[in-house]
Amino acid sequence: MNADTTAARNMKEATEIFEKHTHTIRAAIRFHINDASSIDDIFQDFFLSLVERPVPRRDQNIKAFINRAIRNDVLDAASENRSYHQRNCKYAQMHQDRFKSKAPDELVIHAEDIRQLFDIVENQLLQHETEAIIQKYRYDRDADEAAKAMGVTRRSVSHYLCTGMKKIRNFVQQEQYADKDYLVEAEALA
User: Fold this and answer.
1) What's the pLDDT tens digit per position in 70-85?
2) In terms of residue numbers, what domain contains 43?
3) Residue 27 contacts residue 74 (beta carbons within 8 Å)
4) Of 96, 130, 153, which closes a domain?
5) Of the candidates 54, 74, 96, which is a domain's last residue?
6) What is the dihedral of CA 92, 97, 102, 103, to 10 degrees?
């Protein structure tokens, strides 16, 4: 109940300040910001910050408080934009290879490899392991969604995925060794 009355009092004080000093607030925002499209956003954010943190003392010079608080809000917004931009640049740099288009023949080869892997899954694993892998990798479901679709527990899905993937890795390794042995024999015969 006390929090509600404090919030209501803060809202009332912020509204009074905005009614009396709207022109001062907008002028201070325009003074501190170059981007005209951000003025309304800063204006609204300033109102919210006044609701969250009201003016500390009533006898304080309100215009000086407004200028200082807006300067701080503008600096905070600029800092957030700068860090957002830096994070995006860092992400783009880290993943720039992922955004390059592959040649059509590479896409076809990749699709064929995936189809072959699913053929192996369907032919080499137990039914519940196959279903768990299909739910996870073909339908892109997490363990909870896969468990619900399969009618089993999340833990069972995790177990099926683990054992199924282990079997697939072993099978692929055996196939690779068999291919290498075949190539060695073919070279020896040649």
Assistant:
1) 888 877 777 777 788 8
2) 2-96
3) no
4) 96
5) 96
6) 130
Rounded CA-CA distance 128/111 in Å is: 24
CB-CB contact of 82 with 114 (8 Å): no
Distance, CA of 187 to CA of 122 (rounded, Å): 33
Q: 103: exposed, middle or buried (C-beta count within 10 Å: 0-12, 13-18, 19+)?
A: exposed
Q: What is the pLDDT of residues 20-67, one digit of tens each?
A: 888 888 888 888 777 777 788 888 888 888 888 777 766 678 788 888
Extract the runs of DSSP E, i.e. beta strands, from the chain.
Answer: none
To the nearest 10 degrees (0 to 180), the angle between helices 143-150 and 154-189 is 100
**Domain shared by 12 and 89, yes or no:** yes
**Structure tokens belonging to residue 80:** 């957030």
CATH of the domain at 178: 1.10.10.10
CB 122 within 8 A of CB 174: no
Considering the chain, what is the average pLDDT of its residues? 82
Query: Exposed (0-12), middle (13-18) or buried (19+): which is 44, by Cβ within 10 Å?
Result: exposed
Strand, coil or helix: 153? coil
Split into its structural domains, the chain has a count of 2
